[in-house]
User: Fold this.
Amino acid sequence: MSAATTTARTAGGAGGAGRAAMRALHILLLPAVLIGAWWVASLVSGVYYLPTPGEIAATFVEVWGTERLLEDVLPSVGRLFGGFALAVVLGVGLGVVLGLSARIRALLEPVLEFFRAIPPPVLVPLLMLFVGVSTTMKLLVIVSGCIWPILLNTIEGVRAVDPVLVDTCRCYGIRGRRWLTTLVLRSASPQIMAGMRQGLSIAIILMVISEMFASSSGLGYTIIQFQRTFAIPEMWSGILLLGLLGFLLSVVFGLVERKVLSWYNGTRAAARGE
Amino acid sequence: MLDVTGLQKIYPGQHGEVEALRDLTFHLGDGELACLVGPSGCGKTTLLKCIAGLMRPTSGSVVLAGTSVTGPPPDMAVVFQEYGRSLFPWLRVRQNVELPLKEKRLPAKRRRELSDEALDAVGLLKSADAYPWQLSGGMQQRVAIARAIAYEPRVLLMDEPFAAVDAQTRADLEDLIRTLWKRFSMTVLFVTHDIDEAVYLGQRVLVMSSSPTVIQDDVSIDLADERDQINTRGEHRFAELRTRIYAEIRNASQPGAAQPQEAGKE
Assistant:
């Protein structure tokens, strides 16, 4: 009996390790296959524009070492965060006002729909004329694109605040700042976070675009320079860097989101009867 | 303590006005426990919202302790039917109970005392650090009750608070309400559609007619003060009172008198 239990436990332990290995395999398998396929394609075709992953990796370290990291990458990422943060503040702030007041919403909605329809990249030449080729211009380009999902989702979230909770707050005299932070913003936080997630990926795109014209530094500028000078592995390494940056931001955002919305996920799980 | 005089509520609607409440007048004495029963659609929730200051009546007045109610009064607490939606899911149980006390600017120590006492009174002190959604429906409603008690109200309004919990939990919660009412000496107005519950809980039962609503009867419940689920409900007098109120509500909802459609809020 005891021997049987021991055997079962050992088997279970091995099963656990096996499961972990399977999980790792699941996660890494597809990237490994894709890199392998790329490698083969690169070697077989011998096309100049398609270096092997090995070459790109070697170039990556060499190109994005300290100097470019400090002069191009970090300022770009800084502008990305700056623009994104500005868009969050403006989007959530304006979204709360619009979500709470039907009158202001009716007044502004047609205008907002119009501005939303303008693709932000076309604003680049315009903004260059008005504010010059500057950090301000780049921040404005980022804000002009990534504010929309944040704004619209905030409006929806604020409008969807549960009327029973609204009555509860009224009964217990909860108003002012506590009402805003405890009721309105927390209620709307699932939608706000969804908007921020969309906004973040738009912000990355616009960061690159804002640096592609008439710029003299930054990630977008550097990649364009490499392309124009036929520094092909370097160009690829820039694309790789952008991919990694986006991936990293998405992972970090996911962690923050899980923390902020733990109550929401818990409520949903409880409603499903888990 | 609470005076409701000539209360009328008319909802404007697309197909003409709907008179939900016609003329309600009653008085609750200090420390009374009264139940309000009526057929479904008779405007119980409308009445409660008018008393709570959440809704303005079309005419008539609500006066609480000498002061006219025009907005939510500071010494009144409300327990809503939808317990799952009246607690803040992002706050823990204790935070939910203490939130109104923060707004009252009570010091942290006093808040803690009040929330401890209230949570202990409803038997949930152990769950103080849980989130509402981790609790069963009955427990969630007890958190809402604890929040109301910790607020130290003079009047406690309850809007069909046990309509959505199972029978056993409901019986427990009914006994809890009687216990809390005695311990914290509040005036309680308990709205329900369940006649048995009204007779079991109340010192008085106010019977509402169907819409457009008036107070049809005011029944004094002359049962012993100590009540328990098995014996009290088995008493002959309990059955008599129950039958009397049941008959009145049935008469009230008989067709015959011209009855506009029911008000939406119920």
